[in-house]
Fold this protein.
Amino acid sequence: MADKVNRFREKCRLVHDLAEVQQLLDWDQQVVMPRKGAEQRGLQQAALAGVVHSKLTDPEMGELIADLKAAGGQDEDLKADLREAERAWSRAVKIPPELVAERAKACAMAQVAWEEAKEADDFARFRPHLERVLELTRETAAAIGTPNPYDALLEDYEPGMSEEALKAVFSQLREGLIPLLDRIQGAANKPAQEVLKRHFPAQAQERFGLQVVADMGFDGAAGRLDRSAHPFTSGTLADVRITTRYDEHFLNMALFGMIHEAGHALYEQGLDPKRFRDPSGQACSLGIHESQSRLWENLIGRSRPFWACYYPKLQSAFPGVLDDVDVETFYRSVNVCEPSLIRVEADEVTYNLHIILRFELESALLHRQLEAADLPEAWRAKMKAFLGIEPPTDREGVLQDIHWSAGLIGYFPTYALGNLFGAQFMETMRRDVPDLDRRLEAGELRVVKRWLNEYIHVHGRRYLAPELCEKVTGRPLSVQPALSYLQTKYGEIYGF
Amino acid sequence: MADKVNRFREKCRLVHDLAEVQQLLDWDQQVVMPRKGAEQRGLQQAALAGVVHSKLTDPEMGELIADLKAAGGQDEDLKADLREAERAWSRAVKIPPELVAERAKACAMAQVAWEEAKEADDFARFRPHLERVLELTRETAAAIGTPNPYDALLEDYEPGMSEEALKAVFSQLREGLIPLLDRIQGAANKPAQEVLKRHFPAQAQERFGLQVVADMGFDGAAGRLDRSAHPFTSGTLADVRITTRYDEHFLNMALFGMIHEAGHALYEQGLDPKRFRDPSGQACSLGIHESQSRLWENLIGRSRPFWACYYPKLQSAFPGVLDDVDVETFYRSVNVCEPSLIRVEADEVTYNLHIILRFELESALLHRQLEAADLPEAWRAKMKAFLGIEPPTDREGVLQDIHWSAGLIGYFPTYALGNLFGAQFMETMRRDVPDLDRRLEAGELRVVKRWLNEYIHVHGRRYLAPELCEKVTGRPLSVQPALSYLQTKYGEIYGF
């Protein structure tokens, strides 16, 4: 059996190493690749995808998993590895390669069509492509064979979660957020926005942001920071790269973007070095990943204790620019809440509603309860219901996100799950570290990193997200921590 | 048969695409990878090497090659593809995988030992590692099975060339160079070196260098320039990356380094886009590759017509620095000839002697005509004989180059071949473009690029290097063009 265990682990690790390469090629494409290199990069990625697919569907892998599971008696880690490897193997063998190829092709075409449709504000141009992607996505879900097709898709991003569970959680969340948003909108005392729109030279933004992420514990010898059109985090353990972009007339974009990506990066740098190449040694789920980035960005980076420490440093980083702004004014300015059309620019409160809207719509599309043709109208109606505003164009509405064109259905919910998991983890961290605020005021951001390292990062995927949440916080995922955090914080800022 | 041709081409192209990925990982490691990422990078490269090896030794590939060759009647391109694929396949199947692994391990250890030995100026520390590498290299050559083991090694870098042919060429070259060097050393009129050692800010060096390589025809949308410890060129066709390094007190390093690497890059960018993924569509050999870089660096970049155009631009690029230096003084300064200890810093004349020395020594080592223990002494003796100087330390002698520790035996000759091929191509180019010097004086560097594109680049590896040389220049490789170029140029500079 020891031989089979070794053989199993070796095969899994090989797939992991190749997946690291795939990710690196993507980083390269987004950050440094010369413009004309795209076609060759596509061929390289296709070659690697073929290799990885053949390793994932290798019959010997299926036999090893079956034999080892039948033998039983393994330790917790190996059991978790078998569970994760089995899910990956069974998905890979169930989806016919022709369907994978056809869906990839349809998505590539849909992304081009989406870009053109967005540019021209013409949903009709995108519609047939969306329909085709949905059709092939339904076929994919059917091949996987879960009773609810949405669950088959969700499993890829958030294993252990179900559409039913999401519906329950999101409806509670929505019911808590809409009245909160009403109270915020009714308040007279609005935070100033002008202070964030002064001139902040990119180089000084970079220097300040690098200082913050270093203080968080981001290891610069095991990672790097670059610029890219869309910020993201790439890599794992000892080579984790984050990107950002700078707007010299809007401080938030790079600053909170860097803290957000560094939150993802700390997770990857914090995995168990002995297990990070094993199936259950990698990060738990997209929702847990997002909990790390959002916790750092919002629960730490937009908190009063954080700015008590960092505001004087920020003022020195931009000499003269913020001399007339006190820390309280600044704190309130980075915590403004205001319904807006674009998800990626939304604040902590409304962001969740943007996600719930997308979840409800993609679910209805997948289950054929909504026709693609009726999507723009449904989008506007939900925006009105949730946020009280309607996009004047589809470009600022249904066409704003790339996800559906890329076949990413079941992905949006993980963003809101990140907020929920993050708030619930934070509640527990506050219990474990009673003087947390005092320590944040002293700039000891590493306290947060160490707690996350110990309770979240090092476990990797040993437990699925719902189980991890219970292990760490002592109870199942709940909307209460997020709602009470938001109610307290925004009640105090807006004075109700 | 058409089916088999397709299948054959598909398999070859897949190997090519994966080889591009291997090269990109190496570029990344040398240019942007965080320090701690080395171990993971090693695992990624090992995973890819395993995949590529299994594709290269795939029995179906052997059958396809045999069937297609037996069927015959193919066009020239397919014949060349079969020839190249057969060489790669047969090398891959002949060398036992255990030997490949053992040699790779021995080389990895030898490189570490070489670095330490060089640092400590202690050849004895390197000697056992060199012996081990030589032993495994002899075994590798024996597995390949050419009558002369050196030819088996050479074949990997310079297919179509033999040790016997190299001996003949290099002895003529040496016999021509040594008296030339004597006359140069006897001349009274030495070029000034001080002008090159003034202060040249790195940013201005980069800007000027980028202008020159753009004028040469380097396509910046299909490539990029970065800094690295050791300059190199990576990639092919639409993604070709060059690197350089800057010494603010020595103009030559970055300037001629960039022109050199851009010469390599133009070759890769100039391959046939329809054939670059096929076995005979890639660059011909290391010697032909080096002919491109050396032709640009020396025959163009160190020529009087080039500086007639670029010297005023250089003066403007470094305001005030070269005001007191006229173009003739500058031209002579970049063409100084002086025996020196270090190959990579050698001039056009002595560089070849450094290579011939290494060729003769590595040949003697491989054939057991020289013991590793006697190598330092043999090195000093040959330095004395060829260049009239002796290294005071092994660090400046036998320990200066990484190649032997990396198992690169049979590789050095390609550097000198590059000089010979380059001079011979240039002679033909001058015949085809009679007003070449006038056009260079006008800054029309693209004339050179277009000629090289048409006569060298587009052929890829359709012909092996000796055949390509004959096709392009109308006669076999000869030392005469290089010798007469050097005699004329240096006779004029040194006044004899």
